[in-house]
TrEMBL record:
GO terms for molecular function: carbohydrate derivative binding; DNA binding; DNA-binding transcription factor activity. SUPFAM superfamilies: Homeodomain-like, SIS domain. Residues 1-76 form the HTH rpiR-type domain. Pfam families: HTH_6, SIS. This is SIS domain-containing protein. Coiled coil: none annotated. Keywords: DNA-binding, Transcription, Transcription regulation. InterPro entries: Homeodomain-like_sf, HTH_RpiR, RpiR-like, RpiR-like_SIS, SIS_dom, SIS_dom_sf, WH-like_DNA-bd_sf. GO terms for biological process: carbohydrate derivative metabolic process.
Length: 289
């Protein structure tokens, strides 16, 4: 995950560590140029506080933190997309529209990859494998991607439940327990219904995987795991959710692929066998009467 995003989302930090984080995020270039004692003086925190923060980030030292900051800053300056919210203009040719969308898609995939925590993805896939039931909660346009994920899993004979109506989502959450893995898709946690769903799931001790943006999301407090979506787009002021749709598809496809890899040959044989049976039936000519 990009170190800037990791700093933004780091939890269980002390007030002094939070001051240090805000200083780094607000002026990373100044941090890069300073020595540990200068950093402590600049932020009015102790040098041990700096090293405790570095340990929480899983880094080996100040130089490691600076190297990752440099890489993150360099990556940000390489963003080819002028606007994720308005990537096309009324004067664009068809070729320019296609090129602009291609740039949005490429940057979205790259950013999603940088935000990913591979250990989390593996552990979530393992939870999927162990769960007696997998439920996916989504709303609006995200529902179509949840349904596509359910279709992929059904192809390998794994049932995934995607309740659509708000009442059915609450009913499904009410019936969930620790044997259910609940995947919640919510960019910013703005909908009150999804908050209620998560509260019910939490009361029922159903582990929650939250697929969310890097922005603050009130649903985070319920989640056992978080998977981050690329978050360049404005939630409302935009032409369309070009980037958000792709980042979600990429994440769900990744979870499916890791799950598939855990039992690769068995699942491959199962899927090919199923489609072979369907193909034979479709091509079998009915006897003439």
């Amino acid at each position: 995950m990009n170190i800037l995003k990791k700093l933004e989302n780091l939890e269980n930090v002390t007030p002094n560590e939070r001051i240090l984080i805000e200083t780094i995020l607000n002026n990373p270039e100044r941090f890069l140029a300073a020595k540990p004692k200068e950093i402590a003086s600049l932020t009015y925190v102790s040098v041990p506080t700096l090293y405790r923060l570095i340990n929480k980030l899983g880094l080996s030292g100040v130089n490691d933190l600076k190297l990752q900051l440099q890489d993150a800053l360099h990556t940000e300056t390489e963003t080819a997309v002028e606007s994720f919210d308005f990537p096309i203009s009324p004067t664009d040719t068809v070729n320019e529209i296609q090129q602009h969308l291609k740039d949005v898609y490429a940057q979205t995939i790259d950013d999603t990859l940088k935000l990913s925590d591979q250990q989390v993805l593996v552990e979530v896939s393992q939870l999927m494998q162990k769960a007696a039931h997998i439920d996916v909660y989504a709303s609006a346009g995200n529902l179509f991607f949840a349904q596509n994920f359910a279709f992929q899993m059904q192809e390998i004979n794994v049932s995934v439940h995607v309740p659509e109506a708000e009442y059915m989502q609450k009913l499904s959450a009410g019936n969930a327990d620790a044997t259910h893995l609940s995947i919640v898709i919510s960019f910013g946690g703005r909908g009150g219904s999804m908050n209620t769903v998560c509260q019910i799931l939490s009361d029922n001790q159903s582990p929650i995987v939250l697929i969310t943006s890097t922005q603050k999301n009130p649903l985070t407090r319920f989640a056992k795991y978080r998977i981050f979506m690329s978050s360049y787009e404005n939630h409302y002021q935009k032409i369309s959710s070009f980037s958000t749709r792709l980042t979600l598809l990429y994440i769900l496809d990744t979870l499916y692929s890791i799950y598939f890899r855990l039992n690769y040959q068995t699942l491959l044989d199962r899927k090919l066998s199923t489609y072979e049976k369907i193909h034979r039936r479709l091509n079998r000519r009915e006897p003439e009467i």
